[in-house]
Amino acid sequence: MPIQTTEKIWHNGNLIPWEKATIHVMSHVIHYGSSVFEGIRCYGQPQGSAVFRLPEHMQRLLDSAKIYRMDLPFTLEELCAGVVDTIEANGVAPCYIRPIALRGYGEIGVSPKGAPVEVYIANFPWGKYLAAHGGADVCISSWNRLAPNTMPALAKAGANYMSSQLIRMEAEINGYQEGIALDVNGLVSEGSGENVFIVRNGVLFTPPLANSALSGITRDSVLTIARHLGLTVTEQALPRELLYIADEVFFTGTAAEVQAIRSIDRIQIADGKPGEITKKIADEFYGIANGLKPDRFGWLTPVKVDASETVTA
Ligand SMILES: Cc1ncc(COP(=O)(O)O)c(C=O)c1O
Question: Which pTM was predicted?
Answer without folding.
Answer: 0.96
